[in-house]
Protein 1
Amino acid sequence: MTNLSKAITADQTASYQKALTDDPMAKVVERAVSHQGILATAADYASAADMTPVFSIDLDTGKVANQKQSGRCWMFAALNTMRHHLADLFKLSDFELSQNYTYFWDKFEKANYFYENVLATADQPTSSRKVAFLMTTPQQDGGQWDMLCAIIEKYGIVPKSVMPETYNSSKSSELNSTLNLKLRKDAVVLRKLVADNASEDDIAAAKDKMLKEDYRLLAYTLGEPVSEFDFEYRDDDKNYHIDKGLTPKTFFDKYVGWDLSDYVSIINAPTADKPYNHTYTIEMLGNVVGGRAVKHLNVSMDDFKALAIKQLKAGQSVWFGCDVGQSSERQKGIMDTNYYHKDDLFNIDFDMSKAEKLDYGESLMTHAMVLTGVDLVDGKPTKWKVENSWGDKVGTKGYFVMSDAWMDKYCYQVVVNKEFLPADLRSIQETEEPTVLAPWDPMGALA
């Protein structure tokens, strides 16, 4: 094989320098970028005019929530879709479900899920890719729609008033570093037990002790979840209500009442290894052992958007996952591929296809939000209304505008009711055994 390794020569460097010297605009661009930064210099503020927050379909979903300094966007977004439904039924416009309650149980179940994966890979060296993957982040704040469904199906939900936020739920870095330290230490113990041929009873006893400690750690930092409570509130008409003796599961059944199996994950991943109109799951991705598994139906972008529009037209908001940091202006609340023009600024072609971005690590799902509107012109979407969970100081009182081109490029997942799927796609989603993807596949990214 020909040796392709070649050092940069002095002649090459000299030619690059001359090319820059000969460019009359080079110093102008250098001064602008070096003083203002890349994004400010590349910004095209005309994009803001195109992203005016006016939509032909616009759901009124009230005030936005605030996940603060935590990575619970997927959880906030999912609970927001349920809150929207509950608020309409019971006239509770300023109501929130407890994100801390589901957070507690997610952390607890993730610890057990981690232990099971440690035991399943205990015969592999710590240098194996799977073990290294597990130990890189034993657990984190992020998750996916199916994972929250697994928590709710097992533990239910409660109003935020019943289990409010704590310092650690709103600012989770200390909790995460402490819990991950413990989980890695526990992994050492479990792997050693397996290596020493310990009995199943001894391993189970060790794991039970670990889970007891995990529960205590979480109770001290997040508060202990309630098992029974009274729900007391005034509705938007100022009428007083009290509902006594509820459990988290009876509260969900009565006040949300969804059959969560009706809501399914639809993805758009146009990579060669994931043909459209097939289902996929990801190895070692989940939280509740024995609970609902992650399952994605991969479809074309046209089908992806059509399903979201159907649900919005029916008056239901849509959970979605995307790569929020790409071509996104946080303060203005604009997500638009035309907002930044780095290619013009540097005279470099930065364009990559969506599939290339996924395959080469340039993009993956990093954030979940809620679609609450869309602007249809001649039946085609031009921009989308997005409810974020970063508080009301960004965007338009916390709401963002997303161009349709941005959705094409950086949206990867929506959750829709199966009733909106065409018969052929519904049959595939319900009956096909999903292809198992590697743990590090980008479709396993946690929002």
Protein 2
Amino acid sequence: MRIGQGYDVHAFAEGRKLILGGVDIPHTRGLLGHSDADVLAHAVADALLGGIRGGDIGKLFPDTDPAYLNADSLKLLAAVADKVRAEGYAILDVDSVIAAQAPKLSPYRDEMRANLAAAMGVPTENVGVKATTTEHLGFEGREEGISATAVCLLVRRSSS
């Protein structure tokens, strides 16, 4: 068995959609990034890659490559999940936390879980998503951006 841990952060930017866990969340600003800047999907992808010791999503999908400009991060996550399986592992469980002062994210939690699970090819019950504020502390609390952390549990599949 292997565990992986992921972390990602993106700053807020005007004129962009706020996409978290593949959900377009109504807000005055979105997140800045080369792709759709889905900080949650990126943290989950990094956790999976950490579990197979495969680096991070920047290694697989560099922000210098125009092919990934405005890319759908759920598609990137699906490619990472395929890589995990190709390395001989099954994804058992994923848990995550989004840190954002605003907007309120709990109404979107179940949809985020379902989207992430579908992208990874696992049951929704095996994916956790939580949201928290930072009580107005740090860059998240000042509403400068959003961060996300994720952990995963992988198991090596038998080769028989």
